[in-house]
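Worked example 3 (structure in, sequence out).
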């Protein structure tokens, strides 16, 4: 297939890091807090060249992103540092023009707008990157190149490799997809040889049905109960409010506890400074502990303030899906589905509460901490594309609690409650070094 602009850029994309990468290295290092190098001057050195290498293109993009979002870095940069990201109009114009020329040379087309050439390079180009350009692109622009480390590790490896050495291959490449594909292929072969293709199809149908049922239960309950609107007021009467105010007492307390633990404590009394910092100080945690003890909510302390859940809550959470399970399995039985369907149904049904009890905590951890604390199977899942998507999805939920309710993807899309992260939100995820 002839991709416009690809042939002309193959030599730049395919080569090892060159020894003339000093300009890119200088610019990248100037972006660090406390650097004595002025990033505008370093960017002009690249902009004054006839054409920028891929490495220099990515470095320029990182600089212009810092300029565009300087205000969002105020807690990480001193006032003196921030002043370095306020270039004069002449410098800004030259750098923008150089980056636009570079984008056009690499892709073979004129960018539609500034947001496009400040974004990741197209996938048909990034798949050909290797060495320092690949590492730097991953660190600054975050586009998947088929390998992943936390952004800080990519940036460090990229800067080190700019001295002329070619870095070793990334050490945390996820092979979960390959393993699952291999297991699936092996299952098909075995099934074909033993005449159980019908059973395999039944199990697959059960798995898919269960996944969507659990995804829908999670999205709806998380939305309507975990984020019940005006639970104790009169402004927005709805089914959940009615259950809480007029339902039987044995149902009122769980309804309140679910809303209080999730919406009040997990969303608004913890992780107040950022997505990965549950408490700013031990004093803040102690004050919350006193409140929870006073309110008789000690179970939330044991559940790490809504990051996980105790076994009692685990079983209650599982029980919320039982009516949906009964309807689904009953309909499948009437349709003639047998034991394979039930076995396939079991997997997502068990995974459903485990996403909140076990997996959820890792979505709030920096990548290195998550990988160090996770069990081996969890490490494999955390490095999968599905988990990375979920981390991004969940981050946006904390920014905008009316969207992205799923940890088991699917139902949010059906319900129209999905929102993708903005450029600023992706930048914040990179700053926190989340495994996204």
């Amino acid at each position: 297939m002839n991709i416009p602009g690809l042939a002309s850029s193959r030599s730049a994309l395919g080569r090892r890091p060159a020894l003339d990468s000093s300009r890119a290295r200088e610019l990248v290092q100037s972006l660090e807090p406390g650097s004595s190098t002025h990033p505008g001057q370093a960017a002009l050195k690249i902009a004054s060249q006839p054409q920028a290498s891929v490495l220099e293109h990515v470095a320029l993009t990182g600089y212009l992103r810092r300029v565009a979002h300087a205000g969002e870095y105020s807690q990480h940069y001193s006032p003196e540092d921030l002043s370095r990201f306020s270039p004069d109009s002449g410098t800004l114009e030259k750098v923008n023009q150089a980056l636009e020329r570079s984008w056009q040379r690499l892709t073979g087309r004129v960018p539609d707008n500034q947001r496009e050439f400040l974004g990741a390079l197209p996938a048909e180009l990034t798949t050909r990157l290797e060495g320092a350009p690949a590492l730097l692109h991953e660190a600054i622009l975050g586009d998947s190149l088929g390998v992943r480390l936390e952004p800080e590790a990519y940036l460090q490896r990229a800067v080190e490799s700019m001295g002329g050495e070619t870095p070793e291959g990334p050490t945390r490449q996820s092979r979960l997809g390959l393993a699952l594909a291999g297991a699936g292929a092996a299952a098909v072969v075995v099934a074909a040889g033993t005449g159980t293709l019908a059973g395999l199809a039944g199990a697959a149908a059960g798995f898919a049905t269960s996944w969507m049922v659990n995804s829908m239960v999670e999205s709806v309950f998380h939305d309507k109960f975990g984020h019940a609107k005006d639970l104790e007021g009169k402004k927005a009467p709805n089914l959940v409010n009615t259950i809480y105010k007029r339902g039987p007492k044995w149902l009122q307390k769980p309804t309140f506890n679910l809303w209080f633990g999730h919406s009040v404590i997990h969303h608004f009394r913890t992780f107040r400074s950022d997505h990965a910092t549950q408490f700013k100080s031990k004093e803040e945690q102690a004050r919350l502990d006193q409140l929870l003890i006073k309110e008789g909510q000690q179970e939330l302390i044991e559940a790490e303030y809504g990051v996980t859940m105790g076994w009692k809550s685990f079983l209650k959470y599982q029980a919320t899906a039982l009516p949906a399970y009964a309807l689904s399995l009953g309909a499948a039985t009437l349709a003639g589905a047998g034991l394979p369907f039930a076995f396939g149904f079991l997997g997502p049904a068990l995974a459903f509460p485990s996403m909140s009890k076990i997996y959820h905590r890792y979505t709030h951890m920096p990548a290195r901490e998550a990988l160090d604390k996770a069990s081996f199977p969890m490490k494999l899942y955390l490095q999968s594309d599905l988990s990375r998507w979920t981390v991004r999805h969940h981050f946006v939920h904390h920014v905008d609690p009316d969207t992205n309710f799923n940890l088991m993807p699917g139902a949010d899309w059906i319900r129209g409650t999905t929102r993708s992260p903005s450029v600023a939100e992706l930048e914040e995820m990179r700053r926190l070094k989340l495994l996204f």
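Notes: The first helix runs from residue 6 to 14. The chain is about 65% helix and 0% strand.
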